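Sequence design from tokenized structure. All designs in this work follow the same two-part layout: the structure record, then the generated sequence. An example of the structure record is given first.
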């Protein structure tokens, strides 16, 4: 217990020290929702220039907290159960969905953040500078976390990563949305679908981004590899394409960063015996992650456009069903036989659509339980959801450190207890930050 208090105090000190670089608030602010987020507020009603009453959207904080808690548990080992580990190649597990949920949630928060800032008469230029600043901070934190293993050799520094992917996706999607966002709703033309029609220029940019991903994936010439190869290389297909790991996605990363600056130990190497490095947070997948932010933005636009809870829930369910059906068609509702299999390593189109589908449905359920009916406060998940940046960076820094981890015999029960314990400590840490009214965001 003493060691726990000591470590929590160390982290609180680090949080205070980081206040020179990130935003530290005693009250969660609308303008601080942007990337990993603090609390979120949504305005009831639309098309009115006067200030409307705001309610905290606790369901979104709860969903963000759920994603983060699962991410920490998975990163800490997931009890060494297979379904808490990433799929070696095609397919999807629970571990695969948490990061795309984060990306999607970022889009939901983004819609409300920019609307709130515009209503406060903050100039678009000032908002853009905030977007750039947050992206740089996140990218820098990502590079720093890539060196936590002790490898600070700049000749072998991994450049892509989770926070870097978030930073780049946020930069592009937020900039595009800023160009077309409105402080208030305009005329209610085609009212049932006005959440889509009012932002049609954004979709004219989002869909070509997705098309570019498909074009590069299936038509970019990769030396000594078949066109449109989507496999892991190595032993796949009797070693026919041993040096084609990741197809176009792997080729682009190795061409841009070089073999030494991308992930050296991808998950598929244990199954397929690959020897080439491959980065699951690489360049080509940034295009589909940007599209996933736009899908999250759509969920946020539904919140801003419609004031009735039924209208919001129905539309989220429709979008969830639409994304799920398209993903199923692309995969032929199978693991290996479809045109575009679900693949977290490639961030394939079907992977993005299937994870977005689950996110739409989850938000609809949580919104009904937490915000509409009030049957659940969102606790304890809401606490890490309101301080996700601090919890994410903290759990990376203290990975493998007692009292979060210790030597365990080869037993699922021991690993499960240890990983649940380590995850629970971060929930307690987030609760303590909440009690102290300390909220950190990029």
């Amino acid at each position: 217990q003493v060691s726990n208090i000591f470590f929590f105090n160390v982290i609180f000190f680090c949080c205070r020290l980081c206040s020179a670089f990130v935003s530290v608030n005693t009250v969660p602010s609308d303008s601080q929702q942007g990337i990993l987020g603090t609390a979120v507020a949504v305005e009831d009603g639309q098309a009115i220039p006067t200030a409307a009453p705001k309610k905290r959207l606790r369901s979104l904080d709860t969903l963000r907290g759920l994603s983060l808690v699962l991410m920490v548990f998975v990163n800490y080992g997931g009890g060494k159960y297979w379904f808490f580990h990433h799929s070696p190649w095609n397919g999807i597990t629970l571990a695969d969905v948490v990061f795309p949920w984060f990306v999607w949630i970022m889009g939901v928060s983004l819609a409300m953040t920019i609307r709130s800032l515009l209503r406060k008469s903050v100039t678009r230029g000032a908002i853009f500078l905030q977007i750039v600043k947050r992206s740089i901070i996140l990218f820098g934190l990502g590079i720093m976390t890539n060196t936590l293993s002790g490898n600070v050799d700049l000749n072998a520094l991994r450049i892509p990563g989770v926070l870097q992917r978030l930073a780049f996706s946020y930069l592009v999607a937020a900039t595009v949305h800023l160009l077309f966002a409105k402080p208030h709703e305009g005329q209610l033309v085609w009212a049932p679908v006005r959440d889509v029609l009012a932002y049609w220029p954004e979709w004219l940019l989002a869909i070509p981004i997705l098309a570019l991903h498909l074009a590069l994936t299936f038509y970019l010439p990769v030396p000594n590899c078949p066109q449109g190869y989507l496999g892991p290389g190595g032993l796949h297909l009797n070693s026919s394409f041993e040096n084609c790991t990741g197809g176009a996605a792997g080729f682009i990363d190795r061409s841009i960063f070089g073999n030494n600056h991308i992930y050296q130990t991808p998950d598929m190497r244990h199954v397929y015996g690959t020897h080439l490095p491959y980065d699951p947070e690489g360049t080509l997948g940034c295009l589909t992650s940007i599209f996933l932010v736009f899908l999250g933005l759509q969920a946020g636009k539904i919140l801003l456009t419609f004031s009735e809870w039924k209208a919001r829930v129905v539309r989220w369910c429709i979008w969830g069903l639409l994304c799920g059906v398209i993903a199923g068609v692309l995969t032929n509702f199978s693991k290996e036989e479809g045109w575009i299999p679900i693949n977290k390593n490639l961030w394939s189109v079907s992977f993005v659509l299937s994870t977005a589908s689950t996110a739409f449905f989850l938000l609809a359920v949580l919104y009904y339980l937490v915000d509409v009916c009030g049957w659940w406060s969102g606790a304890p998940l809401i606490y890490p959801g309101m301080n996700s940046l601090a919890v994410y960076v903290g759990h990376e820094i203290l990975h493998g450190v007692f009292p979060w981890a210790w030597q365990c015999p080869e037993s699922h029960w021991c690993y499960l207890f240890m990983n649940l314990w380590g995850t629970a400590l971060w929930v307690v840490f987030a609760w303590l930050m909440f009690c102290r009214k300390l909220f950190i965001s990029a």
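Confidence is low (pLDDT under 50) at residues 1-7, 13-22, 30-34, 44-53. We note this feature because it recurs in several other targets discussed in the main text.
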